[in-house]
Design a protein that fits this description.
This protein is an alpha/beta fold and about 550 residues long. Helix content is about 30%, strand content about 20%. The chain has 15 helices and 26 strands. The protein has an eight-stranded parallel beta barrel with strand order 1-2-3-4-5-6-7-13, surrounded by five helices. The protein has an eight-stranded antiparallel beta sheet with strand order 19-18-24-15-16-23-20-21, with helices on one face.
């Protein structure tokens, strides 16, 4: 008898892990469950998990009351079948809470050879209807992962017609331009099999137009200010004679297959209302920063909805997700069809106005040891983002003390993986016992990232497009944002700037960062400092309080 576990009372948050450290971060930052794979039998040939790592990861997760699902979701060829017996025996020893399978033959094999393992059906099986869900339930599946192409209306019907089996749906992460990842473009372009876990992301490459002259020579058509208006490239589909579809290209090429990233945070309450059992985040190849910060945002959102569903709003959690690099966010197939706002035609890069500064490597008696992940210079403000507390703390840093040599510098780069010391004495507004308790090893640290004007305009366009998908904003505003991006791309100005100023009184956020000499010394913040004295430990002001006068506190006291 195959193992079937009952549906949970609450929806679980399911996070990806590409290595052991990311698994631990997912657990610490709020995941209920983690899915992972090994390079030989899952659709992630870049997985950094060894068997020993998997065993340690499962033990770590179970010790924290979390679940772990192993992926066995490749489409098997004959060469893979001899490995199955050994793999299944190994998996049984690891003791995961479920095995994710796509291939029907592999599903049947594991069902017969290891009936004690709970079986989940992968998104690669392209489950798009309640009939398919019923089929897999009858085969012994405990959970069905629905394809990303399933609309919310279809999801409601599937839940109604299949009330007993657990359902899992993607809510966040990269989107494939084909049918839930079943793609041959990567095979054709680079001989790397997307359905064997080795996608080359050919859909996101830069494509340029060339012309072949009658003498056989091939020349690139250079598009610049002199030639841009001389050419127009059109596609005509065979059955639609006369319907000419334009292809737009700039100096960098075209991005006609470049999907934005899925983000269903604006609709998360709808998924919770109908009882989707597992809310899945894509990203086993994503960074530690991505895993931790996305988990944190969805953990807060899910908990807050269960605490107060009528008063729930996605806005604060969307703000948190904006600190994580993305290609822009889309609701994708939630409403049943894609719009032009679901694609990024201008750029393929992931982008955010914040970046991964580092993480807490170790907590010592007198301070933190920080592993640096990006360049930091004197005057930068670090934000420590704890895994349990919602209250972040800020530290303006003026020098960098090498943890090994004790040497102080005014800038630090990530190339040599430096470890720097952050003495507790620098956190002059914080309680040291709270620092040790709330900011453990692996705590994320982020900072503002300087961007070019083109990058700022890209972010503004992405956010306006997200509004349009939700029926907010105006099309005129969207077109203005798009034109601004086109203009800044044409100017190609490579100078970078921060969202907030760096120097003088203007360079202070005015909220009370630890170590900020401007806030704690400048007369312009005298009243703000008195307000901070009334705050609870760790709280900051809600907005910039520079120049505040008596009686003009406003919303500052709500920080």
């Amino acid at each position: 008898m195959v193992k079937i576990s009952p549906r949970p009372e609450r929806s679980e948050l399911l996070m990806p892990a590409g290595d052991l450290q990311k698994l631990k971060m997912a657990v610490l930052y709020g995941a209920d469950a983690i899915y992972l794979g090994t390079p030989d039998m899952s659709l992630r040939t870049k997985s950094a998990f060894s068997l020993e790592d998997v065993v340690e990861g499962v033990k770590f997760a179970h010790s924290h009351g979390k679940r772990v699902y192993l992926t066995l979701n490749l489409f098997s060829h004959n060469k893979d079948i001899p490995k199955l017996e050994q793999y299944v025996e190994t998996v049984r020893k690891v003791n995961p809470d479920g095995v994710i399978i796509a291939d029907p033959g592999v599903f049947q094999y594991v069902k017969e050879m290891a009936p004690d393992l709970e079986l989940h059906v992968s998104t690669q099986a392209n489950i798009c209807s309640w009939l398919s869900v019923k089929f897999w339930a009858e085969q012994g599946a405990s959970l069905a992962v629905l394809a990303r192409e399933v609309s919310y209306a279809e999801l409601v019907e599937i839940r109604e017609k299949c009330p007993d089996i657990k359902l899992e749906a993607f809510v966040h992460g990269a989107m494939c331009m084909t049918y839930s990842g079943r793609c041959l473009l990567s095979n054709f372009m680079s001989e790397r099999g997307a359905n064997q876990g080795n996608c080359a992301n050919s859909c996101r490459w830069h494509y340029k137009v060339h012309m072949r002259l009658k003498d056989g020579t091939i020349k690139e058509i250079e598009l610049n200010e002199h030639t841009r208006d001389m050419y127009e490239f059109l596609l005509e589909e065979g059955a639609r004679e006369g319907e000419l579809m334009p292809i737009e290209e700039d100096e960098r090429g075209s991005y006609i297959l470049n999907s934005k990233d899925l983000c269903l945070m604006p609709k998360l309450d709808e998924y919770l209302k109908i009882g989707i059992d597992s809310l899945k985040v894509e990203g086993r190849n994503k960074s530690q920063y991505y895993v931790a910060l996305v988990a944190r945002a969805y953990r807060m959102a899910i908990d807050d909805w269960y605490a107060n569903p009528d008063g729930w709003s996605p806005e604060p959690y969307l703000k948190e997700l904006e600190t994580v690099q993305s290609r822009g966010y889309t609701l994708a197939f939630h409403e049943g069809r894609l719009t032009n706002h679901a694609h990024n035609y201008e750029d393929t890069a992931t982008l955010a106005e914040w970046e991964f500064a580092g993480l807490i490597h170790k907590v010592e008696q007198d301070g933190f040891l920080m592993e640096v992940k990006n360049r930091i210079v004197a005057g930068d403000v670090l934000e420590l983002v704890p895994p349990r507390s919602r209250q972040t703390i800020f530290l303006r840093i003026y020098e960098f003390i090498d943890a090994e040599t004790g040497q102080a510098r005014d800038a630090v780069n990530a190339g040599q993986k430096p470890i720097i010391r952050l003495p507790f004495a620098w956190f002059d507004q914080e309680d040291q016992a709270r620092l040790r308790a709330d900011y453990p090893e692996l705590t994320m640290i982020r900072k503002e990232r300087p961007l070019t004007q083109e990058q700022w305009d890209r972010l503004k366009l992405d956010r306006e497009a997200q509004k349009r998908e939700q029926g907010q904003g105006t099309e005129d505003r969207y077109l203005q944002r798009r034109d601004a991006l086109v203009e800044s791309q044409a100017e190609a100005n490579s100078s970078r700037k921060f969202k907030t100023p760096r120097l003088g009184v203007e360079g202070c956020c005015g909220r009370g960062c630890n170590g900020c000499l401007i806030f704690w010394q400048d007369p312009a913040y005298a009243k703000a400092r008195s307000l901070m004295a009334e705050k609870k430990q760790g709280e900051m002001l809600a907005r910039n309080a520079r120049g505040l006068t008596e009686g003009a506190t406003g919303a500052l006291s709500d920080g």
